[in-house]
Amino acid sequence: MQSNQNCLNKIYFSLIALIFSVYSTLSVAEQKITVFAAASLTEAVTQVAADYEKEKSVQIQTSFASSSVLAKQIENGAPAEIFIAADNKWMDYLQEKNLLKPANRVALLGNHLVLITPKDKAFKVDMSKDFNFPNAFYGKLCTGETESVPVGIYAKQSLKSLNWWDTIKTRIVGTQDVRAALAFVARGECGAGIVYETDAKVSNKVETIAKFPDASHEPIIYPLALIKNASAQATDFYDYLQSAKAKAVFTKYGFSISTP
User: Fold this and answer.
1) What percent of the chain has pLDDT over 90?
2) Does residue 15 carry a pLDDT above 70?
3) Which of 74, 115, 225, 251 has the most CB within a 10 Å radius?
4) Range 158-166 average pLDDT
5) Rounded distance, CA 189 to CA 56, Å?
């Protein structure tokens, strides 16, 4: 009789432990925040997320890619709660489809467009309409896809503004995101590249040889927004991304802070 009671007690406590384990797992899952961010934000957002995780009992899952790719994924139902794009175009795209909380959309960061070369392969360049850019270097020019990827869109605007587009467009290699363009130049597969200033700083295998005039392209703005069904935890992290602590990290990585 005592043996049966002991057996029942073991089963009872095992069930309690199992229920507690399942509850704890679900509780952690409920506290996971999913953030989609432009590829150029990889290091900065990763650090901001890590700092936040140390302060809060919450897990932040990040996904980095071109803003165009991420926007399409969100449109197709990807479980993102926060989106940071590298331009307004793709944030507008989601807003037009009623997938954002429009009242929670803000301009978070800014950046600059630069011309890079592989390390020790620099050439002289003059950011003027009279400069013969195609003859200044050998090989391909790498940047993002010029019709869809933000860095490529900005690059095309600058090349057109400087009257270089028509003579260089056949040598352009359009990549899936800015980090892919950076990698091509770092490996020497492209003689030059157009990336963001912050991306050039993360690689010791490239050189920045010039900065494109800000007036040659639309302002580089990184809008931040909450996805329509974002949780309360996501809203808290959205607020943290705009805090002084987060801004200090973004500044460390070379981003400028947008002002209202």
Assistant:
1) 86
2) no
3) 115
4) 98
5) 43
- Which CATH code of 3.40.190.10, 3.40.50.720, 3.40.50.1820, 3.40.50.300 fits the domain covering 31-110+222-257? 3.40.190.10
State the burial class of residue 201 (Cβ atoms within 10 Å of its Cβ: 0-12, 13-18, 19+).
Answer: middle
pTM of the model: 0.86
Tokens of 213: 């005039």
- CA 177/CA 160 separation, integer angstroms: 21
Dihedral sign computed on CA atoms, order 90, 96, 98, 100: positive
Q: Report whether 185 contacts 193 (CB < 8 A).
A: yes
**% of the chain at pLDDT higher than 70:** 88
Beta pairing class for 192-196 and 82-84: unpaired
Residue 16 has pLDDT above 70, yes or no: no
Query: The tokens of 196 are what?
Result: 């963001």
